[in-house]
Amino acid sequence: MSNTKAANPWTWDLRVRERNLRAGTVDVKEQEKYLSSLPDVADQATPFSIDPPNFEATAAPDADDDNDDEDDEE
Fold it and tell me: How far apart are CA 32 and CA 34, in angstroms?
């Protein structure tokens, strides 16, 4: 693995890794070597949860509501 690839975090970013593999920027062996070199930090993780958004409460108003005043003027 070249130093340029190791120094550039975008090379290994999950969002572009498949594209880099297809383009030949990196190969599978380089990827495996990189992944095996990563430290295991699972014991440092903190679990958390969030409530799902309430889409009904945040729904946009009906588009016709804005035009009601204009219809009454005619």
Answer: 5
